Amino acid sequence: MMTLHIFNQGTHQTELLNKCLESLTPGDTLLFIEDGVIWTTSSPFDRLNKRLKVTGIDIYTLSEDISARGLESLRAETVQMVDYPGFVSLTEKHNHSISWF
Amino acid sequence: MIYSIVVYGAPHSSQAPYSAYHFIKSALAMGHSVYRVFFYHDGALNGSSLAVSPQDDNLLPDAWRKLKELHNMDLVICIGAGIKRGVINQQESQRYERQQHSLDDIFELSGLGQLVDATLKSDRVITFGAR
Predict the structure, then answer these.
(1) Of B56 and A21, the one with more pLDDT
(2) Backbone φ and ψ of A22, nearest 5°
(3) Which of A85, A89, A99 has its CB closest to that of B129?
(4) Cα separation of B52 and A99, whole Å?
(5) SS3 for A71?
(6) B29 to chain A: which residues are within 8 Å by CB?
(7) What ipTM is given for this predicted complex?
């Protein structure tokens, strides 16, 4: 059963991110929104990737929240961008979602 | 699909109600329906009829009224969360012997059973959290 994980906390919530990453199973999707999008900028994303033990996780970041924080040029290139309709589409594709906060 | 949304954050101090609103707008535009929005914890503060937003930041609470008028979804404030934060209707105001009530008439004050009911009757429940 594939789960959409929605993470909205900034890079000060390292422990929460660790718990989230530990709970992932292959095929899950991780979406960063609100202050969570900071995790998808280059340096924090490198740290995240080092802690990610599972393969086959799709990682997305919400474009509106990236733009609102002026982070377009800092975004890690391997992260996929979604807008709100894209966010809705992700919830269509996953039977379950967990919001981490 | 039928969606329900849970909002944990207050306007102005959390992004949660704004994110929830944008998500709902997109979901409706894509042909989905929203059965209920459940406001929990500080999210109960979205239900105050006494809040006045500055003119340059006036998305909420008017946005909830427009959604309610156009799509007639349930907007439910958790009664326990509301009472603790001074978001109460006339009935609760009388019960607790207060002089005023503050709940906007587009919202209902009800219990966690409404959240359970929403999970049973919706294909998806999406939570917008706050600290």
Answers:
(1) A21
(2) -65, -25
(3) A99
(4) 29
(5) coil
(6) 85
(7) 0.97
Asked if CATH classification 3.60.10.10 holds for the domain at A3-7+25-96, the reply, yes or no, is no
| Closest to B126 measured CA to CA, from B32, B7, B1 | B7
Every domain of chain A and the residues it spans: 3-7+25-96
Which residue of chain A is at minimal alpha-carbon distance from B21?
A84
Q: Which of A34, A61, A83 to mutate to test the interface with B (most CBs of B within 10 A)?
A: A34
Q: With CB atoms and an 8 Å threshold, state whether A99 touches B15.
A: no
Q: For residues A66 and A73, what is the distance between their CA atoms, to the nearest angstrom? A: 10
> Which residues of B are catalytically annotated?
78
Q: At what angle do helices A42-51 and A14-23 cross, to 10 degrees?
A: 50
Question: At residue B70, what is the residue type?
Answer: L
Token duo for residue A52: 């990610």
Average pLDDT over residues B24-41: 98
The domains of chain B, with CATH numbers, are 2-128 (3.40.1260.10)
> Which tokens belong to A42?
């280059």
- pLDDT digits over A39-65, tens only? 999 999 999 999 999 999 999 999 999
